[in-house]
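Escalation from tier 1.

The customer reports that the assembly of two entities below gives different structure tokens on two consecutive runs. Tier 1 could not reproduce it. I'm attaching the input and our single run for tier 2 to review.
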Amino acid sequence: VVRLTLAHDPAEMTRLGAWLDAQEHQMAIPTRTAFALRQCLEEAVANLINHTPAEAGEDIAIELDWRADTLVAAVEDSAPPFDPRTVPSPVRPTNLESAVPGGWGIHLIRSFASDIDYETKAGRNRLTMKFVPAAPAADAKTRRN
Amino acid sequence: MEMNITVMPQNAVRVVLAGRLDAAGAAKIDLPLSATAGSSRHLLVDMSAVTFVASIGIRVLVLCAKTVQRRGGKWLLLSPRPEVEQVLQTIGVTDLLPIVHDEAEAIAAFDG
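Tier 1 run:
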């Protein structure tokens, strides 16, 4: 399991991006899976940093691990519990003038992860997102082990 | 994320974005793109070199597109990569941010 901790600060998004660059390579994550993983982690961490009360220190912890052929990403935080599985899908905007940007992140997570889970234990929330890579023929890179 | 601007006919500009439009990328282009949206009639935003879009980046595009439309102009996206287009479609903004595939198509749309 590889782990990254981030402070509750928008500037930390740059560290997340660079860490994902390194993990994609080191963990040999197939291209399309890497795209889905980045989509989900960007959205999950940005939601925490932008929409929850600031916590001291590096409160946000990210874990990444291959379990058999499934890539498992977890995001932990101490914010008030917020189960993304219970949020209704955003209304599809019909025209630009009335479009209110927002609520898209969770919709993207639910669309791009193969499966998500959420639990709160002892004041820590844990969002788990699973990614099952497509068959090797459908993907550019193959996994090294 | 890099941003370059070239002038087109009909008081339009072509904005070429390159790299990841993630949170860091969105923060970098927010002000310059807003300024361009506020000072040009039509915008053609070349997405062909954008490798990733987060919702925070799409938010910047939608808000700038609103600015352009409010001033009577048109906003078009040029040739997003399939994986980026999939994100736009998942959110449901492809009707709001129409996609064209070459500059001639954009000029025709700006004319109309």
